[in-house]
Structure formats: structure tokens, C-alpha cells
Hints:
Mean pLDDT: 94
Order of helices and strands: HEHEHHEEHEHHEHEHEHEHH
Shape: globular
CATH class: Alpha Beta
Number of domains: 1
CATH topology: TIM Barrel
Helix content: 25-40%
Largest sheet: 6 strands, parallel
Low-confidence stretches: none
Protein name: Cytosolic protein
Pfam families: DUF6282
Number of helices: 12
Strand content: 5-15%
Amino acid sequence: MTTPSPALLKVLDGAVDLHVHSGPSPFPRRLNHVEASYDAARINMRAILIKSHHHNTVMDLLAMQDQLKDAPTPAYGGVALNSEVGGINPSAVAVAIQMGGRAVWGPTVSAGQHIRAHSHDDGFPTAGANLEEKEESIWDADGNVSAETVRVTQLIAEADIMLSGGHLDAESMKAFFATAKENGVRRLLLHHPDFIINASQGDVEEMIGYGAFVEHELSMYHPAVEAPGFPIQQLVDWIERIGPERTVIDSDLGQKINPLPVDGYIYVIQQLLDHGVAEKDIRQMICRNTAFLLGLEETN
Length: 300
């Protein structure tokens, strides 16, 4: 566990992490949601969003509400549209929203792009179990955006919560975001365009045109995380190319063998500062943009 310097702590104060992989989960996790709240408090985070590939995390948080009532950092949940919840399933989205969910993720582990990327032994955790997953798609049999996909975006727009494209391929995600924008979704997030998604610069620019923010994960730039092990200059280049106004930085941490989420912030954000990224730009990416996506009022 790392302690940040006072100067770094000032930069990190009030961050919102939209990509926390605490447990329970069928994948091995280092900490549960209550412990994740306390971990976040080490740098006075404003909020965290709990992501599971396999279930509605709002249910977890409600079941843990007695343990969370005195926890220092508010934790929010949502649902990922993988085969475990019926894929692109408006009912699963409606349930999550009704229970207080703040996010819907498009297919991740059930996306064809993810399945192709992880068809070999690359270290992606499976908990040693076959979860009977099947590929999920936003397209119908005629090659059009499905009616279920349209309805999902309508529900998200009505609730004014965040939609992430998950691990869809770039063409599917562009169609997903175009449909979402048409139906009034304001909070859109593209995960790791250079990992699994493999979106081109043109793809990214098109999705930004639909209103999307582009997320980069601290886990991919921390030396204690084996894969993908990107150099910090790659993140600096992305920030310069896209601009901090449309960039989001989150942890994507909580896995059993990886650093704690806050340790990811402490290491990588210091690296960005050392590489000349301005404090105000970092706070734009870790505080303001993330607060907007989670539906919180902006912070300084």
C-alpha cells in the first residue's frame, strides 16, 4: 500500500473511479465493495462505480448497505449486458435502473471482439470455470441495430445514466453510440480503444462526435500489471491527441493479483505529472469528466 505525497494527494482529491472490479465476482478479486470504499478514501475519492462482467452490481450494494452505511466513499453500481443477464436485454436494464443503477455497459466478455481477443491463454481470468457464455450483439438477423438495442438506449436516456460501449468492436460501438445519441443519451464512454477494441483514430473521432468520452485504464500503465504493459508515453500521447476535455482515466483494478485501485492512481498519476501533464488537465480527466458521467454535479 503506497502513501501519496501531499502534493499528489491534492491532485487526486475528489477523483471518481468509474472502473472498479471489487467482489463478489466469479473472477478472483482482491477486495470486496466495502473494502473498495475504504481504499478509495485513502485519497478522498468522491465516488466509485463497481463493475462486474457477470451481474447487476446494484444488487450487491443494496445487500451490503448495512456495511456500507458508514463507509467513507459512496459506491454505485450498474449492469453489463453479457449473456449472464440475457445480453442486450431491456428488462435487465430496467431492473438495474429501478434499483438505482448509474451505468449500463455494453457486452464485455460476451462481445465477439472480446471473445476473439481472448481466444488464447493471455492471462484473462476465468476463475477456472466455464460460465456458458455466448456471443451477444447489437445487430438483428437482418444486419440492423436490433429493437432491443434501441429500447436499451431509450431506457438509459430516460434515466439519464451512463452507457459504456463495453468491449464491442468499433463498428458495432459506433452504431450503438449513434443510436444512443439519437435517443437522447448524454453520458457515453468508450473503454480502452487500444486494447481489445482496437479502434482507429477515425473510429475514436467519430465516437467523440456522438458525445463519447474516451477512457484509459491505470491498470494498463502500472508495472505490477503484466498485460498489456503499455508505456506511459502512450497515455500522454492519447491525452495530447484527444484532449483532456474528452479523456477519462480510471483504475480497472481490484483483481486478485493486481495493485489496489488507489495504488494505481498514486503511481500512474505521478508518472503523468512527471511527463508534463498539467494538474488542471489531470483533474479534468479524473474528477470533472468522471463526475459528469456518473451523474454527479461537477467538482473543482
